[in-house]
Amino acid sequence: MIEIIQGILILTGAALMLVAGIGILRQPDVFIRMHASTKVGTLSSGLIMLGVAIHFEEPAVIFKVVLIVLFLLLTAPIGAHMIGRAALRIGVEPWGIERKEVELKNDLDHPKPAETGHETVTGGAEGHTDSTDGAGNRR
């Protein structure tokens, strides 16, 4: 009976990975492709890992599987969000939405430092400035 459950979990995970791969190839823009890769990829990896944990039935393996699944659940959505945000910032057009409908707030804009001291532009986001004193030390 356990072999049947393992097989169902692993085959379902593999089928979902296949669907995610097809979705990546067939979807029209980066945002929808990201959705296909992260959501379905995380679910399918979790199902496969669950099947592996059931197969081996060892505490060390189960602990590692739990850590892997938690890592995937924590990192995949954050990575997808960052990639989507970067794509929107560089001007990738969302499929089916006019650019004027998409409002992107620039969270990296900081208030201008006081007029005293020197301003230096550092590498990073546009418009990001650091205030330094006369000796070049950051305040």
Structure description:
The mean pLDDT is 79. It contains 3 helices and 2 strands, in the order αααββ. The protein has helices at residues 2-26, 30-56, 59-89; strands at 118-121, 129-132. Helix content is 60%, strand content 6%. It is elongated, with a radius of gyration of 23 Å. The protein is mainly alpha-helical and 139 residues long. A two-stranded antiparallel ribbon has the order 1-2.
Strand order of the largest sheet: 1-2
- The number of helices is 3
Nearest-integer average pLDDT: 79
Radius of gyration: 23 Å
What does the main sheet amount to?
Answer: 2 strands, antiparallel
**Structure class:** mainly alpha
- SS strand fraction: 5-15%
Would you identify the regions where 5 or more consecutive residues have pLDDT less than 50?
A: none
Amino-to-carboxy terminus distance: 66 Å
User: Helix share of residues?
Assistant: 55-70%
Shape call: elongated
Provide the succession of SSEs: HHHEE
Oligomer: single chain
Question: Key terms for this structure?
Answer:
two-stranded antiparallel ribbon; 60% helix; 139 residues; 3 helices
Provide a short characterization of the protein structure.
With 139 residues, the protein is mostly helical. It is built from three helices and two strands, in the order H-H-H-E-E. Helix content is 60%, strand content 6%.
